[in-house]
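Our consortium's second objective concerns turning raw sequence data into structural hypotheses that experimental partners can test. To show how far this objective has progressed, the report includes one record in full. It was chosen at random from the queue rather than selected for favorable results. The single chain below, 119 residues long, was entered without modification.
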Amino acid sequence: MGEDSMEIRKLRIQQQGQGPLIPVLDLLQVQNAIDYLKTIGALDENENLTVLGCNLSMLPAKSKLGNMIILGVVFNCLDPVLTIVAGLSARDSFFMLFDKKDVLGVKVSILISNAHAIS
């Protein structure tokens, strides 16, 4: 959630009379994201991006993981931090569930193979 609000602040997206440009979010979710970004220092008290927030918005990672990367650079231990971030950002292969689209694709391929076996 924090990444979305950071990106919105960076781009200064405004509604142009054509309907919302972003999905409608619950006000509580937005406030929680803003509070979180203030806590980690990505936003100041006036909800403006800080230098950390600008740097985090350029990283293709969640704000927690991006913060780890930046701290890894600061403390000169980037290699082990990148290994940890890569592990934390990947989906767990032991608990990976099929998406409904994937399940449908598997079912279709089974039906096609069964149809070829019958004919």
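The partners drew two points from this record. Residues 2-118 form a domain with the Four Helix Bundle (Hemerythrin (Met), subunit A) fold (CATH 1.20.120.1080). Confidence is low (pLDDT under 50) at residues 13-18. Both points have been shared with the crystallography group to help prioritize constructs.
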